[in-house]
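Q: For a teaching session next week I want to show students how multiple molecules come together into a single three-dimensional assembly. I've collected the sequence lines for a complex. Could you give me the predicted C-alpha cells for the whole thing so I can convert them for display?
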Amino acid sequence: MITIPFKNKGAFLYVEIYEYLKREITDGNLKFGEKLPSKRSLASHLSVSVNTVDAAYGQLVAEGYLESSPKRGYFVCQIDTYLLKQNNHVSEKKIKKPETKSVKIDFSPNAIDQRIFPYEAFRKIFKVTFNEYDSYLLNKPDLQGELELRKALVELLYRSRGVRCNEDQIIIGSGTSHLLQILGLLWGKNKSVVLENPVYLKAYHIFEKMGNPVISIDIDEKGIQIEPMKKFSDVAVYVTPSHQFPLGMSMPIDRRIRLLNFANQDQGNYIIEDDYDSEFRYNEKPLPSLQSIDNNGKVIYIGTFSKSIAPSFRISYMVLPEALLKAYLEIADAISSPVSSLEQKMIGAFISDGVFEKHVNKMRKVYKGKRIVLMNALKQWGDRVKITGENAGHHLLVQLDNGLTEEAMYTRALAQGVRVYPVSPYFIHGAENYKSMVLLGYGSLTDKQIYSGIGILKEAWDL
Amino acid sequence: MITIPFKNKGAFLYVEIYEYLKREITDGNLKFGEKLPSKRSLASHLSVSVNTVDAAYGQLVAEGYLESSPKRGYFVCQIDTYLLKQNNHVSEKKIKKPETKSVKIDFSPNAIDQRIFPYEAFRKIFKVTFNEYDSYLLNKPDLQGELELRKALVELLYRSRGVRCNEDQIIIGSGTSHLLQILGLLWGKNKSVVLENPVYLKAYHIFEKMGNPVISIDIDEKGIQIEPMKKFSDVAVYVTPSHQFPLGMSMPIDRRIRLLNFANQDQGNYIIEDDYDSEFRYNEKPLPSLQSIDNNGKVIYIGTFSKSIAPSFRISYMVLPEALLKAYLEIADAISSPVSSLEQKMIGAFISDGVFEKHVNKMRKVYKGKRIVLMNALKQWGDRVKITGENAGHHLLVQLDNGLTEEAMYTRALAQGVRVYPVSPYFIHGAENYKSMVLLGYGSLTDKQIYSGIGILKEAWDL
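A: Of course. Below is the structure for the complete assembly, covering every listed component.
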C-alpha cells in the first residue's frame, strides 16, 4: 500500500498526496495500466478524509496522469518517457547588456526636458478619466484607437500641420516602429521600400526584418533625391520631410512636389511621411506637412507623442489614405489596438482641453532657449566647425575639419564623461562624405550642462 | 507692385503676406526666377514693418518657394507643376463598420466583469507611481520592459504556473498578437508555424500576414495531434494547452510530453504556449505550464493581463528560452518597448504589493459562481445538449442535436436580443464534426442575465 511521508498535515494535504503520486508515476514506480487503491481505502490507510483523496485523484485525472473508469476505479495513464524529474533548470546565466561608462553629460538626440512636464494637469486628467461610472473604461480599445483621441487628433493635426483627414482614417499605434510593422503586414513582403540614406534606423531594421526589399537613396541638401527612384514602381518611400533624421534639413517645396509627382506615377506608390518632431521648429513656423498638399491619397502621415509629451508614453498615430483603409480593416482585428484605453482617453482629453498645445508652446520656448545657449557655446570653437540641421528638433550636427575621426570624437568625449552621437551608424551605405560628424542633442540638458559639455569637447577634440 | 487685401491687420500680418505670395507662386503669377521687391520697399508699400516682411520672406525661403541671394535679393524658385490649389480634399466618406443589432444579453467569450475591478487600489498605485521625483518616470521604457514588472512576473509566474525563468528572459508586449509579430520578426518568414485547428484566429491571421507557411492540425479530445506534425521540422507549434481556444479542453500530461519530445527532435523546433486564461480553472488547481516541464529551452511561454486585470490594458508578456534571447536583443532596439513606462510600473507594483493575486482569487470566485449559475440554467435544456470546455476560463460550448444549424442558432438568438458565438469561424479547415456548436461566455453577465438568456435561447432554439 502507498505510504506518504506527510510534511505538514495542514489544509493542503491533498497537494502532498497529488505530488507524491505524480512523482511515483513519472519515476516509473507506478506503471501504465496499474490500478490505484480506491479513494475510500487510501483515505482510511492514510487517515485522511475521502474528500482529500478525491481532490488529489481529481487533479491527477485533470492533468492526465490517471484515468478514471466508472465503477472500476483509477488507472495510471501511458506517458512517454521524458526527463520530467530533472527540473532544476533555472537559468542563472544572464546576458550582459553593453556597459555604459559613467556619462555625466549626455548629448542624446532623443531625450526631453522632464522638468517641464505638466504633472498636475496630468493628475487631474487621470482623476477625471479613471472613473468607474464610465462603463467603457475597462473595455478593449476600439480597433483603430479610442474615438475621443482620434477626434482630438483630427482637429490638432489640421490646425498644427494642415493634415486633412477624418477620424476613420486615423490608426493609433504604440510607436512609429509598430505603425511601420502594421504597414508591412498590410502590404505584404513584396512591396519594396525606398529609404533615405542616412535614415532613422528603426525604419530600416523593421522593413528589412519583415522581408521587404529595401532601396536606399542618398540625400542631398534638399533631402532624398528623386531621380534615382524613378526606375522603381509599386514602392513605399519613407521620408522625414520636416526635419530629416538625422541630418536635419527640411525638404523644400520643389522637392516635395517632385516626390508627390513620383508617387502619382504608379498606383502602388505611397509616401510614408514621418513627422516625428515637427512641433519644434524655431525660426519659422513649422512647414505644412506633405500630407496637406497631397491631393491623390498618396501620403501616409505618421506622428508621435514621444517628443511632444514624453518618450515614456508609447502612443503614435497614422493617417491612412482611403485606399489603404480597407486593407487595414481586414487585419485590424488580428492586430488589436496596442495602446491602453485609459492612456488613449487621457491623451485625448489632454489635447481637447487645450493642455497639450499650451505644453508644446512652453516646450518650444524652452528648447529654443537651450538651442540659443548651445549655438552661443559653439562660438568658442571658432570656424573650424560646421554646424547643420539646427533649425528644428532637439539636436544639431557638428562636423570638424581637423582630421579627427568620428570614432576618436566619440571615444575622447566619452573618456571625459561626455556622450556624443556619431552620424555614420545611420547610413545604410557610404558615409564617406560625412566624416568627423556627430549629433549633439540638447533636449534634456541644462544651460550649465550645455556650456560645460561644449567646453569639455573643445579640450577633448583639440579645438 | 504687390497689393495684398489684408483681412485683419493683427499680429499675424506676416502670415497673410506669406499666404498671398505662396498663392501667387503656385498660381504661376509669380514665375521661376522672378525677383521680388526688397523687404524695405515692400514694407513701405504695404505700410507694415520690415520685420513683418522679413518673417514672410523667411518662411517662404524655409519652405523653398523663394531663394535668397546675398546682396541681390529674393527670387522665385522652380517648382514642378502640381495641383497644389485644389486642396479641398477632405474626405467625408466614412467606411461603415458592420452593424450590430441591439443586443441585450451578450454571451461574449472575451468580456470580463467590470464590477469587481479594484478601482481604489488602482488609484492608490497611480498616486504612488506617478511621482515627479522618480527621475525615470518619463523615460522610454527598457527595451524588454520595465525591470520592476519583469521581476514581479518572475515570482508570480513561478508561484502560479511553475514557470522557471529569470527577468532577462521576459519581454513585455502590448498584447498576444504583438508578441507573435515579434516572434515572426525574430524568425523571419521561412519558419513554418503549426497551428491547432480550431485556433485562436489572431494567431492564424498574424502568421499568415507575416508570410510564414501555416500548417493547421486537427485537435482531438486531448488537444493538438502529434503524429501529423512529425513529418515537419524547423517549425514553431502554437498551442493553448491549459484551455484550448476555443474548444476548452486541457492537454493531459502524456500529450504534453509527446509534444515536448517532438520539439526536441529538431533544433529549430519551438513551442509557443499561449496561457491566456490559466488563472481561471475551477475544479482543480491550474495545470502547471508546459514551460515548467521543459528542460531543453523549447517552450516560449506567453501570458496576458486581458482576462486577469482588464482587456483595456494592453500588456502581455513572453518568456523566451535563452537560445532566442540573443536574436531578440538584435531586433529589440528596432521594435522598442510598446507599453508605456507608467502602466508597466503600475502593473508591476500591483503584482508585488499582492493586490493582483487577491484580485485574481476574488475574480475566480466570482466566475466560478457565474459558471455554476450557467450550468444550473442549462439543466432546463435537458440532455439534448452537449456541454464541453466548462472547466476553465470564461466560456463553455454547447452543441445541439436537434438539427438546428449554427447559423440558425446565431440568427434566431440575435432576433431575440441574445448574442452567441458560432465555433466554425475558428476553424482553418473542416468544421464538419462541430455542427450546431456555439460558445457561451459568461464573464460579464449577471446571474439574472444568464438565467434569462438561457431561457430565451430555449425558446429560440425549440429545446
